[in-house]
Every structure is written in C-alpha cells, then in structure tokens.
Amino acid sequence: MQHLEKKDSGKHNNVIPFIPDGEFYFTKGVEAFQKHKFDISIKWLRKAIEMAPQEPLYQCQLSIIYTEVGAYHAANQLLTKVMQASGDKYTDCYYLLANNYAHLGLLNDAKKFAESYLEKEPEGEFREEAEQLLEVIDFDDDEEEDWDIEIEDELLIYQETVFHYMENCQWDKALPLLEEMITLFPEHKLTKHDYTHALFYSGYEDDAIEMEQDILKEEPENLHSHINLAIFYYELGQKQEYESHIQALLNVYPMHEQQKLRVAVTLARTGVYHEAYARFRRLNNGLVKHHISYFKWYSTAAYKLGDESKAISLWEEGCRKHKTLSRQERPWSS
C-alpha cells in the first residue's frame, strides 16, 4: 500500500497544470462572438485584456463587440487607447471610430475619421465600407472644415473619460477634466452643462444655477439648460422654478437619441413618470444601453407605474451590462 501511495504521488507531480493565457481567452471570446453570445464574449475578452493589457488586438476586438451591442462610447474609449498607445500602427481604428460616430449621429466626426482611414489605408480592408459611409453622410465638400487629428483625438479621450465619471457620479474626478475641456475646447458647448451638473452635485448649487441661468439668458431655448435647471430646482425643493423648466421640456421632442435620453431621465428623476416612461419606450435602445442612467431611470419609471416585472427585467439587464449598477440598490427600494 505504501508503494502505491508513492506511485500515485509521483503521477500527480508529473502533471503539467494548464494555465490559460491571453490568447486562450481571446480565442474563446471570438468563438462566443461568432455565435452571437455577446455577453459571454465580452467576459472572455475582458479576461484576455487583463492577461495581456498591452495587446491592442484584444482591445480592438472588444470594441467591435461593444459596437455590436450599442455601447458606442465604451467602444470608442478602447479604440482611442489603442491609437494613443500605437499611433498609426492600427489604422483600422479610424474606420471603427467613424462607424461608431455615425451610429451616435455625430456625422461630422464620422466623416473625418472615415476620410482619415482612407487617406492612411486607400486599399485597406474597410475601404468599401468607409466609402459607403461617406456617401451616406453626403456632406457638402465646400463646408469642410480644417481638422487637426491630434486635437480631435485629445477631445475624444476627454469626452470618453468624463462620460465614464459622470455616469458613475464621480464628480470629484469629472470636475477638473471638465474645467480643462472648457479651456481647451470652448466651442463644445455641452461641456459647460456637464460642468454645471458636476458642480451642483459637488456642493456648489448656487454657482451651478447661476451659470445655467446666464446661458439661458443668451439662449432661452437651450435644452440642456432647462434639463439641468429642472433637476437642480427639483433637488432643492423649489417647486415653482422647477415647474417652469419641466414644462419647457414637456413641449420638446429632440431628434438625437442622446438628447431624447436626457429628457426622459430628467422626467423620471423629477417624478414625471408617465411621460418619462413614454419617452423611454420611444428610444432606440441600441444607441443608449451604454448609459447606466437608461437602465436606472427607465426601470424606476416602470416600477412607479406598477409594471414591476418590466422594472426588474430592465434593472437585471442593466446590472449584467454595468458592474457598477450591480453594486447599487434598486432606486425604488430607497
């Protein structure tokens, strides 16, 4: 018996343990993607990136899956990281960014990235797709503006980083970046509204309101000012001021999905659940599911209107897509 024990022990000592590497996880991720099992594919590819964070191919493949599920901001964030680290080595990133911007409705940006791709890869793999994209956009060449790719890359990095911090309510991290953006890119007006939002939730309520009121004096129909002021006054319990801004929103039906989402979220956050629910239902959810706020406030509106199963389904889907949401309590539980 003693001899057998030694023999068995020797067998175990000769076993070479299987230690999966980045390539293993990448292959599993691609296989899942080809089977349209996107959630599983994302998990495998995130693991591949964790094992080999310097491998741009893994990040590019994950960005493609994010695009497939409508998480365009997340896809762009990965692509800009690759471009920042690799320069023009991975020129496909230009087309992939162009495609994402087209889905987001940012057609001018889409055009610029598509043109950059064709300039760098005139016979590239995505040549036909890029040319077709430019045909669809069909901008007037006479209106083409000068464009500095380095400045645009820098702006994109700022936007994606701020988007992440804002969605996760990390105001202390968002504020300094927004201040830099206002200085570096003064023509991007939405930055000021994001700044006042972060300012308000950082405890500077009066300053935030004053800034939005100043903007509204110059632009009385400014949608984002009405959105922020409705939220600010609601949070402060100033009902009369809140009502004037929420009424302005109830009469507006924006064209772009991101603006539609902001209005729907604002209505839900301030208790206008019937109208909020109707607005959420009209959204192209493939374009907004990368927003944590979509799941948080759509599920809240559904619950408040008595559709508990819909609320739970939305919340659970959001938790699967966004880890930070899974660590929060359901908003209607508080």
From TrEMBL:
Entry-linked PANTHER family: LIPOPOLYSACCHARIDE ASSEMBLY PROTEIN B, TPR REPEAT-CONTAINING PROTEIN PA4667
The TPR repeat boundaries are: 22-55
Pfam family for this entry, one: TPR_8
Source organism superkingdom? Bacteria
Q: Which InterPro entries match?
A: CellSynth/LPSAsmb/PSIAsmb, TPR-like_helical_dom_sf, TPR_rpt
Q: Which SUPFAM superfamilies match?
A: TPR-like
**UniProtKB keywords:** Repeat, TPR repeat
What is the species of this protein?
Virgibacillus kekensis
Record-linked Gene3D superfamilies: Tetratricopeptide repeat domain
In its UniProt entry, what is this protein called?
Tetratricopeptide repeat protein
Q: State whether keyword Repeat applies.
A: yes
Is the Aminoacyl-tRNA synthetase keyword given for this protein? no
